[in-house]
């Protein structure tokens, strides 16, 4: 509704400044109607969640649609911050776990992925195609495709100190390893796609001046690849931040739980009495930080994804 | 030392120079391949071995005996559906068929809707382009995990936003709100009697179309903006209608950008775990289960680790087939362009 009223003043100014229209008014209005309708469909779920999250009544299931509920407040956010699920953990602890997992795996996968990507992009040697094919094959397999062996293998690694036994599988370290197992091939492939687009002139000039492979890599390639490194790290972060299946399977102690596990805990079958306002606030708190960064990096991301997937 | 080396290069130095490239390559590949060797390739090999055993919960304990070798029994049981623990409505073939139907019904919607909207947004003189582009990007930037959980609540029969909205619209036409207690996720009867797809499939489809088209619009917009305007002018001077120039100019010139995007879409949609597991949960009666959600349930719910390993090996070969198929599509269209 608000968007519609915002469009109204525009026609007059546009038609006055431009004597001949590029688009006939009838068609313009028709297209505007279609595009507004699409905008409504896109915005509908988002507005619904925002509206729910502001609902002050703390009832389990609101029965009306509001854009801004009467008496809107941020109570739901406060509750979610304090104790989002039945487990004795705060939002901050959950977010910290998610952040550790996401940033740790993303930075690690990018750092050790970039040197391999550099070789695949710039070196020619026997066995290169075979090695690339190996990376491509594991890239194809979704992380759930290796969940059974990873669960069993990580479960075998235990350290007993006195009364307590540390099981690698039942820890953020174990989940992190499992995530890296899928994130590393993606990093290599994605970075290779970007490195392929960096022109070779500079490094050839460098090599003529007598630079070694190491110098070319650290002094020329890496600085040029900073945007690619940032995007790949972010995409890795995003998949770690929203990773669900592995953490849900591996982790059993509430102190290790992540945001995505808790969001699921507040949905559907597990969430009998969780007020939807709390769920909505939680959903927005999980989504907003990564959505904002995605918007900022969007220009660099979308092109790279398809390049990486086909080449 | 330096003086000696200068006078007569030793055999070691010659070897060093000749292998400099390959040694650098090995050095630079080593970190990634050592890590992948331990946490990716070794588990994959282990998985193949696991798939020939009856690995179960009893083998998980620290001092547990190794599992029994059962040969190809797991594979046989997956294909026949007679698993060691009876799982209601388990059928590999139904899951595979649904997975393919799911993928190849979603992606065409994404591509067609995405391209049409991109073309519409590219019309000269259209108002508010930037405003629409800013809104249409939103489904891409919101994590699928959040989208799936939110839409799950939206499909709630009594309180979900979809039914409430339909009831509001229905009121205008004098339809009772009771009509719109649609059980989007749980309804077992097929909404179209001759089409064996449950209502939750359509719910998933709607959500995934909502989620999927903006990506295609971005890709198509990029390609559209690189089509020179002269082409359209020339066509219109030659008397081509807008429709004719759409089919003769726009579509062929979009193809090189859209085919890779569609392939990417096919692979993503085929393995769309988060959306299906969190939205429909594969239900009702496992009718919207895809391969990866089934594999996950075999581990997570049934704890049949051996069977799950065999299932994942099968998934690997299915994906290999799918990749070869999509490669063929890409190649075929490349030839078409040339």
Describe the protein.
The complex is a heterodimer of chains A (311) and B (338). Chain A is an all-alpha fold and 311 residues long. Chain A folds into two domains: 80 residues, no CATH class; 225 residues, Orthogonal Bundle (MetI-like fold). Chain A has 14 helices and two strands; from the N terminus they run H-H-H-H-H-H-H-E-E-H-H-H-H-H-H-H. In chain A, strands 1-2 form a two-stranded antiparallel sheet. In chain A, a hairpin with a 2-residue loop joins strand 1 and strand 2. In chain A, helix 3 crosses helix 14 and helix 5 packs parallel to helix 8. Chain A is flat, with a radius of gyration of 25 Å. Chain B has two domains: 47 residues, no CATH class; 248 residues, MetI-like fold (Orthogonal Bundle), CATH 1.10.3720.10. In chain B, 69% of the residues lie in helices and 0% in strands. Chain B contains 15 helices and no strands. The longest helix of chain B is centred in the last third of the chain and has 33 residues.
Spatial shape of chain B: flat
Separate helix tally of chain A: 14
CATH architecture of the largest domain in chain A: Orthogonal Bundle
For the termini of chain A, the CA-CA separation is 45 Å
Number of domains of chain A: 2
Nearest-integer average pLDDT of chain A = 84
Q: Helicity level of chain B, as a percent range?
A: 55-70%
Contiguous uncertain segments of 5+ residues of chain A: 1-16
Helix vs. strand class of chain A: mainly alpha
What is the CATH topology of the largest domain in chain B? MetI-like fold
* Strand count of chain A: 2
Produce a short descriptive summary.
The complex is a heterodimer of chains A (311) and B (338). By secondary structure, chain A is mainly α.
What order do the helices and strands come in, and which of them pair?
The complex is a heterodimer of chains A (311) and B (338).
Chain A: H1 2-7, H2 10-17, H3 25-53, H4 75-82, H5 91-122, H6 128-140, H7 147-156, E1 158-161, E2 164-167, H8 172-196, H9 201-208, H10 213-224, H11 226-241, H12 245-250, H13 259-265, H14 276-310
Antiparallel strand pairs in A: 1-2
Helix pairs in contact in A: 3-14, 4-14, 5-8, 5-11, 6-8, 8-11, 8-14, 9-10, 11-14
Chain B: H1 2-7, H2 11-18, H3 20-50, H4 73-80, H5 92-121, H6 129-136, H7 138-141, H8 144-154, H9 161-172, H10 199-225, H11 229-237, H12 242-270, H13 273-279, H14 291-300, H15 305-337
């Amino acid at each position: 509704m608000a968007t519609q009223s915002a469009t109204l003043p525009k026609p007059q100014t546009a038609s006055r400044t431009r004597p001949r229209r590029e688009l006939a008014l009838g068609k313009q209005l028709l297209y505007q109607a279609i595009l507004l309708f699409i905008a409504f469909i896109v915005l509908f779920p988002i507005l619904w969640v925002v509206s729910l999250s502001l609902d002050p009544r703390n009832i389990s299931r609101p029965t009306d649609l509001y854009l801004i509920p009467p008496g809107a407040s941020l109570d739901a956010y406060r509750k979610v911050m304090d104790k989002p699920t039945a487990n004795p953990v705060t939002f901050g602890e959950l977010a910290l776990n998610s952040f550790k997992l996401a940033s740790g795996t993303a930075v690690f996968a990018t750092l050790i992925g970039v040197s391999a990507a550099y070789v695949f992009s710039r070196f020619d040697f026997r066995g290169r195609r075979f090695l690339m094919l190996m990376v491509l094959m594991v890239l194809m397999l979704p992380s759930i495709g290796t969940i059974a062996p990873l669960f069993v293998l990580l479960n075998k690694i235990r350290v007993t100190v006195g009364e307590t036994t540390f099981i690698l599988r039942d820890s953020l370290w174990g989940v992190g390893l499992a995530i890296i197992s899928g994130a590393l091939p993606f990093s290599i492939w994605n970075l290779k796609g970007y490195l392929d687009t960096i022109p070779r002139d500079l490094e050839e000039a460098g090599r003529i001046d007598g630079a070694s492979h190491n110098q070319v890599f650290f002094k020329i390639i890496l600085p040029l690849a900073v945007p690619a490194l940032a995007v790949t790290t972010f995409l890795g972060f995003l998949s770690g931040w929203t990773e669900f299946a592995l953490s849900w399977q591996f982790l059993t102690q509430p102190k290790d739980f992540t945001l995505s596990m808790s969001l699921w805990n507040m949905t559907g079958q597990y969430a009998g009495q969780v007020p939807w306002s709390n769920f909505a606030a939680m959903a927005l708190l999980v989504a907003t930080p990564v959505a904002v960064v995605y918007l900022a990096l969007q220009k660099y991301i979308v092109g790279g994804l398809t390049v990486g997937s086909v080449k | 030392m330096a003086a000696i080396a200068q006078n007569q290069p030793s055999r070691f130095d010659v070897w060093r120079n000749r292998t400099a490239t390959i040694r650098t390559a090995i050095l630079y590949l080593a970190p990634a391949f050592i890590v992948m060797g331990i946490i990716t390739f070794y588990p994959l090999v282990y998985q193949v071995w696991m798939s020939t055993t009856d690995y179960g919960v009893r083998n998980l304990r620290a001092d547990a005996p190794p599992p029994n070798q059962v040969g190809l029994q797991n594979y046989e049981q997956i294909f026949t559906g007679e698993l060691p623990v009876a799982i209601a409505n388990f059928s590999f073939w139904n899951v595979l068929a649904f997975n393919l139907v799911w993928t190849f019904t979603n992606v065409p919607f994404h591509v067609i809707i995405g391209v049409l909207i991109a073309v519409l947004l590219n019309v000269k003189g259209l108002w508010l382009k930037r405003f629409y582009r800013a809104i249409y990007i939103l489904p891409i930037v919101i994590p699928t995990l959040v989208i799936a959980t939110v839409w799950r609540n939206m499909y709630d029969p009594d309180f979900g936003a979809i039914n409430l909205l339909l009831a509001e619209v229905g009121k205008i036409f004098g339809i009772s709100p009771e009509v719109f207690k649609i059980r989007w996720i749980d309804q077992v009867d097929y909404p179209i009697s001759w089409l064996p797809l449950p209502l939750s499939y359509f719910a998933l489809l709607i959500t995934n179309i909502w989620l999927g088209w903006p990506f295609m619009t971005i890709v198509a917009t990029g390609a559209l903006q690189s089509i020179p305007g002269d082409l359209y002018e020339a066509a219109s001077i030659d008397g081509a209608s807008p429709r004719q120039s759409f089919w003769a100019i726009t579509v062929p010139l979009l193809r090189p950008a859209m085919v890779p995007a569609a392939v990417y879409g096919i692979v993503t949609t085929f393995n769309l775990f988060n959306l299906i597991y969190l939205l429909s949960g594969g239900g009702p009666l496992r009718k919207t289960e895809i391969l990866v959600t089934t594999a996950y349930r075999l581990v997570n719910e049934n704890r049949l680790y051996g069977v799950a390993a065999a299932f994942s090996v099968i998934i690997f070969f299915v994906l290999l087939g799918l990749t070869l198929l999509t490669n063929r599509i890409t190649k075929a269209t490349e030839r078409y362009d040339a």
